[in-house]
Design brief:
The structure is a homotetramer.
Chain A lengths: L4 E5 L3 H17 L6 E6 L3 H11 L3 E3 L2 H6 L5 E4 L6 H10 L3 E4 L7 H14 L3 E3 L7 H11 L6 E9 L22 H4 L1 H11 L3 E9 L4 E3 L5 E3 L5 E8 L4 E7 L8 E8 L2 E6 L5 E6 L9 E5 L7 H4 L9 H16 L7 E2 H20 L3 E2 L1
Parallel strand pairs in A: 1-2, 1-4, 2-3, 4-5, 5-6, 7-12
Antiparallel strand pairs in A: 6-17, 7-13, 8-11, 8-18, 9-10, 11-12, 13-14, 14-15, 15-16
Helix pairs in contact in A: 1-10, 4-5, 5-11, 8-11
């Protein structure tokens, strides 16, 4: 059987991240056949050729449809701007290819729904790039919750904060246009929901507020323009399990660079985590002598699969890019028909619906069910 | 002029804390006359006498009315269970005494309103024991916000979590009875609101959710009883300043012992704080070279008044009880007619109204203005 | 029986700290009779009178010998500059008084030896103010070591760092004169040795290095003067138990304000501590499932006596000054003939001898036994 | 010109790490030609073939001499056990190949010296795998020291601790045999010295102590065997710059997994770092208002080259393996004749000599110069 053929569309932030993963998945895991990097697509043809050389792809193109049609391409990595996800994913699925699409699924609920329809029709693998769920630390949290270590979860809090929109003096950009979405709610919210999903389960109802730290932003040509998105969103959640939840999102949070802070409270203990320290998890359990109880800082280690595939020594640390390598391994598992730890288009659509319900709850000032 | 005469009602957790403050305020501050500890009241007469000896009070009684009537008592510390605050405070005010009452003001909004009426009529000092606002670290935060170091505040988050209700197997207690209040909302919420008040300003509207981690609790006699309060509360806030806010309260949060975590986001920086590390504050400012920006951990020091009155060396640390000594000094300031850093009954009533509005917002599922 | 009569010499940093402790010991502990604050001594008579009023002492004086001779003074708190400790302590002991003397014992080994001779002759209590050992967190560490939780200790590291000598531009002061001692070695080393003593045991041999971050310092009148002390000291230790140790001392350590960082390594676990976060201790034990092992942050709580005497709720935090209240309670225990957790003059002398041996090891460039 | 041809000897911990780096260096950096992975060597021929497939090497062999002789191999990665470094490196150098050898250089000073002779004779690049110095956080520290941000360095402390030898019940292994070296001194010390070298400069004199936490260890066959190495080492240092230093090494430190804790004290500030949190650096500077000074936690970001080549967003985090990719890029720079941030065999020999001097200082109980 020939090696799995890979087509990659996009060579930016996430494009490079996919490329690194496709190069590393076989050396890291050792239990998969080294895929064939068949074709790379980038809008600029010269850049496509250059990146193909760097990334190790055999061919390059500026025509994404050609990539999808390429007979050696079995799986398509889609890392283009969100607005292109739907058409590319649907085309690839229609061509019978597997699809690995960056999150969020699409820029409209209708597009996301169409993507799911296409995925169901194709019967191939259609997975989303929710990489944070791949962290061995998060998987440890997932296991500790699943095995009852902290008891039934009754409350969860997720904060996601960065500061790329924090500078009031920064020029008005597309991130402040309504066309880009709601703002922090979709930009960050989808990550929060992906983590809640794998750790605890489904969100049933939501009540959101949104805010604009800066009403307007300067234009390059002088003057200002009113900001149309909301860089801050806060959400109250009720989960199907009965747990209560809270999500706080802020992309104008000075000093926060990649914070995704989780707190999961259970009847027997608590788990805390911060993506800025992604190789640690904090666990408190109400076991044993009460005078020596405390939050324990667990460093990820070979005991926390698949950390062991990267490094045989504990506490040495994985990086953000390496989560995508793990995700890639899961994708290969799914393609091989094995159970995989991935969010597919069905799970992704549920996340998009949660975002949509949150936006409605804000407009209408009342709880909204998903 | 004779020394200020002190009457103290209650010798429990907060009663002892007041007693320590009354003993220490002159030695620590040195700029106030040592007050006369005139009379101590405790329901059990023998215990009252014993504690009077320990605490250094000249006389003791089991009759709180006698204490209020005592001619040498100029100021009354009220540290009894919340249900007694109103009648004692009103009686003391009517007798022309100053009142230093532990928070929360009362167990009903009507009582709190009556207390304010009495305070206005008396014209004496009527102050509440919101001790967390006295921390030099919090005062530093207050100054950094006031002087524009972090720019206009656009978002605030406050979490208050402890675990004294976290044990699902603990017997049903009065804390789970509706008569005790809403649960975490009033038990913890008043602290959160006091901090928001001094740091940022007034809450204008609130939308709350409340949850019960355990639907029922065991009874000593066997069987169980349905829990009537909510150990978890989550609140979305809109402040008069236009800032958005969020409060999360959990008294069943395993592992959290005295957590009051603040995050205040401004247009030029961020402040973070956790009461469990009450001698530190974290400050991020967007000044200077971006490649060396980071949250700085500032340890409280003599530069942060009135830390200097306690210890001449930085980073040596104050304790929880010492906040009450600072509060006591502020009370003396108020009694002397000087500007004081205290929450009076008017500010306290606003906090009670915020709690009440939150409870209504939960029942009605919609935003409620204060 | 009349109350214990207290005489306090000195009203500076430690004088105030003792005064606060004498005021608070009965209210906090409740199981001791409130001492009588008989007489306060300060070199300036007017200041002595003023402080006596603030601190609650009945009388004041500028003559320390009068204080020692005062018939109502049973115990003498000595908080004067180190050079005066010996004569005052010896005089008080000769007068049959109990002595509570701030560390270090004296400025020469001969003086310290004379103090011990006097203490033995007097038969009264002669205790030193090594307050850090009184922290409930340190006592917890002590218990965890004693009960074998971390197994036999094989290695210990103590760092003590502050930055009061860090400013190279600060004027030459007495701290840089040879008459003040060795520098960091005695200024800080005594604290390190007191902690090693109570946690692990005796130091048997030492090998030290010392360094001057700044060779000279400016004089107010212009020009500079050569620094005679060493603001940095580093020590290798061998303990009687066979454990190896290391002490690092730096009083010119920018950013460190009250750091005393301990790491105690045992055959079954590790304990870590930092005085700048004095209400926490970190414990790692090699028990249970290895994939959930980690350093746990234990917040001090009522379970860690005598924290419970201060606050009935966990994680609320004691302050530096409150350690002296605990020490005062131990002193009262010793005076009552009960076992007490204190370092007496015998233990203190051993610490002074360790400092002396370290200084010799530095001069001679070889290991020195104590 | 053809692509650089790579030969890799060894496929264990570090072999895999090199393989990942060779696969990723072109995709990550984009400014280098993708190297040709020519030949892989592993003692077991079948394993060699399997790993070659996974790692993307064109050919495989069990004969390392064949690999060195391979005409397409321009550079040889040596990742075998330390005892083989010398003969392989010397052979490769004699064949005119570039050498990238894992640290430490060799198991004897004589071997290391011979390696340097061979490197000088060959004139090719001979670099060592001191990967920790490649961390953007460490490079930031290096720059902050070099540009005077913390002023002249006067004191440095380095701790390196792991717990792989902490279990007293673990069977006697080769790590406890004298043939493996001194113990922690060489196992960990070389890392400490590499960091001191790039951050501050040369070590001039050393005084070491070494200790055995466990005198003997159990044998599989029953009974015990005396431990010949020292799992603990502590060192006092004097640097050529006049700074004082301290190194503490413990490979039986329960709970420490990959700790390399640095503290660098200067006349104007302090830098602190812990490898367990490798994406952070702490900086204190004595600039600006003293009441807002504190250690700031700087998260690595695109501003800290070459972080930007991996991730365009700050605070997202690199992993341990990615340091080797950076090292690989530096190696390519050196091969291209450009200035490179690498420790070559000359620097490596100095490190070996420091280890040797430390061992002598321990045996002789006195300071030893390097």
């Amino acid at each position: 059987m020939r090696a799995l053929g890979v087509g990659l569309i996009g060579t930016g932030y996430m494009g490079k991240c996919h490329a690194l993963a496709w190069n590393a998945v076989a050396p890291v895991f050792g239990d998969v056949r080294r895929p064939k990097l068949a074709m790379l697509c980038e809008v600029d043809e010269a850049l496509a050729a250059q990146r193909a050389g760097e990334f190790g792809f055999a061919e390059s193109t500026a025509d994404w449809k050609a990539l999808i049609a390429h007979p050696e391409v079995d799986v398509v990595s889609i890392t283009t701007p969100n607005a292109f996800h739907a058409q590319m994913a649907i085309a690839a699925l229609k061509a019978g290819k597997h699809v690995w699409c960056e999150k969020p699924m699409a820029t409209s609920l209708a597009d996301a729904e169409a993507m799911l329809v296409a995925a169901k029709a194709a019967g191939t693998v259609a997975a989303l790039g929710y990489n944070y769920i791949q962290n061995p630390a998060i998987r440890l949290a997932q296991r500790l919750i699943a095995d009852g270590t902290i008891g039934p979860v009754n409350h969860v809090r997720v904060e996601m904060d960065e500061d790329f929109m924090a500078d009031a003096g920064a020029l008005f950009s597309w991130k402040s246009e309504a066309a880009s979405g709601h703002g922090a709610l979709d930009d960050f919210g989808v990550h929060a929901f992906s983590l809640i999903k794998v750790l605890i389960g489904e969100v049933e109802a939501v009540m959101a507020d949104m805010a604009r730290p800066y009403a307007e932003r300067p234009l390059a040509a002088g003057g200002t323009r009113a900001v149309e998105t909301h860089d801050i969103a806060t959400l109250l959640l009720r989960l199907s399990s009965g747990a209560s939840g809270l999500v706080a999102l802020n992309r104008s949070a000075w000093g926060r660079k990649g914070r995704i802070a989780l707190q999961v409270f259970g009847a027997k203990g608590t788990i805390a985590y911060d993506q800025e320290r992604m190789n640690e998890i904090e666990l408190y359990t109400a076991d044993g002598d009460s005078d020596v109880q405390g939050f324990r800082r667990i460093l990820t280690a070979p005991a926390h699969a698949p950390y062991d595939r990267f490094i045989p020594a504990p506490g040495h640390g994985l990086g953000f890019n390496e989560l995508k390598i793990i995700e890639c391994r899961e994708l290969l598992r799914a393609i091989a028909g094995e159970p995989a730890h991935l969010l597919d288009f069905e799970a992704g659509l549920r996340i998009e619906r949660t975002v949509d319900a949150a936006a409605r709850s804000f407009r209408e000032g009342r709880w909204t069910t998903i």
